[in-house]
Fold this sequence. Notes:
Elements: H1 3-35, H2 41-82, E1 120-125, E2 128-133, E3 145-150, E4 165-170, E5 179-180, E6 184-188, E7 192-200, E8 205-213, E9 216-224
Helix pairs in contact: 1-2
Amino acid sequence: MDVQEQVEDDWTLEREYRFSVFVILEPFASAWCILVNDMRAKERIQVATRLLYILTVAVALLATACSSASALVAGSEKARASGETGTGNGAHLECPATQPPDPAFVPPSPWPAQPPGEDRFWFGQAGLWTALPSSGSWAQLARGEKFWWWSEEFDVSKDETPDLEITARRLDGPAPAVRVTEATNGYHESFNWAMLAGVHLPEPGCWEFTGQYQGHQLSLKVWVPLE
């Protein structure tokens, strides 16, 4: 389904939603007309107060729905204007996402020849490497993600909080500062000991990361899509 079809479908859902709200509220309006003829002034005020509360909630729901639809249309228009499409491997056409090296990097023992998980590859050298998605697209970084790094020089028995420094910059436009937590360590039988830090990007786009550890430096690029 293309962007235009998606927008049309979402607008259809919005119209159905608004109609359902009307169907829900209509009986209340009819009931009100019947009750006001049989109630005393005090009772009318109480019922009117309750009805006003229901109407207020309904208006708030409709406002939220309209706002969501407007945001969806605006995002779709922006995507069409910028020519935003996939490359076939998940990354943006204009983002030079890091691709699997040829020949493939194989970490020294005891680390595995292939990273855990599907469609991922090792990138770097023995002094500092990481695992990247083969698609070049990493949506989780926009929500907050643990960024794992490895080094043959990292010894958790000597340093539980490694001096791993991670920086990031957006390549396709300005962006607020990136939040990166202090590095720590982690272990799993599928990838042995590793270093990691929490990364949360402020917005989507084409991002370049640079990791530094014990004199080793590694830079890479990934596309972080709009969710």
